[in-house]
Amino acid sequence: MAVTLEEAPWLGWILVKALMRFAFMVANNVVAISSYVCYVIVLQPLRMLDSKRFWYIEGIMYKWLLGMVASWGWSAGYTVMEWGEDVKAISKDEAVMLVNHQATGDVCTLMMCLQDKGLVVAQMMWLMDHIFKYTNFGIVSLIHGDFFIRQGKSHRDQQLLLLKKHLENNYRSRGRKWVVLFPEGGFLRKRRETSQAFAKKNNLPFLTHVTLPRIGATKIILSALVARQENGSPAGGDAKELDSKSEGLQWIIDTTIAYPKAEPIDIQTWILGYRKPAVTHVHYRLFSIYESGQNMIWRTVISFGSEALSLPTSSTLWSLTMAFARSAFSRVKHSDCHWYSKHTFCFLIKFCWKYDGIMSPKLKKNS
Question: PANTHER family attached here (predicted)?
Fold first, then answer.
């Protein structure tokens, strides 16, 4: 499409802004991630003496890093409106969050949503595709204890065993409380046709806005982390009391992300900010594991994202947010002070590390 003279200045500004944002994001990654790694190394003695305190401090730094990623979208005008039940009320309980998956921006959207949910981000474990291990944020996720899973039939059984072992070794020992996974196993646009063909062949619901969930990882998480009685059923307790101190998973959070006009925001857009400001909508449903029982738990997992099916005239996932317009409870937006203070802190810390590395040899030489 040809560019008119009137559009040229605007497109030029978009390009310049995108380049400036990209340069800042690169600098931000170099500074923040290296500072995080340096601190983790320096704090290793504390890990030996007081593991609980070490992972608490690491979790706070991890939350700050995710807050920076969230701020990239906010600074470009991408904000979030939350609907449904208030998940902050269960921020101190253990939960598994099931999220629909449309683009790489889904992760960034969750990072923005969960920043104001207490220590949830600090105590969270992510399940993500193994390819993310080789990104700039891979080293951070490895240190934090996130799990990288390989897709495909040839890896399925082995990966589930590795996941079970990973949960046993890292979930409780590091003080984790929430697990986040995308049960669809990939982006909607890539898996929709395969999912629909499988549904037709096996007489399952024909889904348009989500795909049939893959329940292998979810089953491992529930079997490994739900507290059980001697008879194997979920441990009892009053699920309505949100300040419950019992161990084990207590909640399933069915999370649905909906983008304007069903046009997902990917990580490139999040970084470069070349799209117009937009509001992404996120809807939550809470299911108590203690209250629901095993049968209800699996119905919840299998019916994941089924709100879209209840809209007989909907043509896009965006439409589903209108069905919950009366249940909005908050809007997430980071304050200028909050955003700049985190970036300033990391830049100062990086300067201190760099300054110490430059000056120490000179001081030794002069002495």
Answer: 1-ACYLGLYCEROL-3-PHOSPHATE ACYLTRANSFERASE-RELATED (PTHR10983), ACYL-COA:LYSOPHOSPHATIDYLGLYCEROL ACYLTRANSFERASE 1 (PTHR10983:SF2)
Better-predicted residue by pLDDT, 70 or 156:
70
Mean pLDDT of 280-295: 78
Digit-coded pLDDT (tens) for 80-102: 888 888 899 999 999 999 988 88
Query: For residue 185, what pLDDT is reported?
Result: 63
Instruction: Go through 241-259 and write b for each residue having 16 or more CB atoms within 10 A of its CB, e for each that does not.
Output: eeebeeebbbbbbbbbbbb
Rounded to the nearest integer, the mean pLDDT of the chain is: 75
179 or 188: which carries more pLDDT confidence? 179
Q: For residues 196 and 188, give the distance between their C-alpha atoms in angstroms, rounded to a whole number.
A: 11
**Residue 238: pLDDT above 50?**
no
**Six-digit token string for 279:** 């509001």
If one compares 340 and 224, the residue with the highest pLDDT of the two is 224
- Would you say 208 and 305 are in contact if contact means Cβ atoms under 8 Å apart? no
For the chain, how big is the Rg over CA atoms in Å? 22
Greater model confidence, 246 or 164: 164
Q: Phi first, then psi: give them for residue 189, nearest 5 degrees.
A: -65, -25
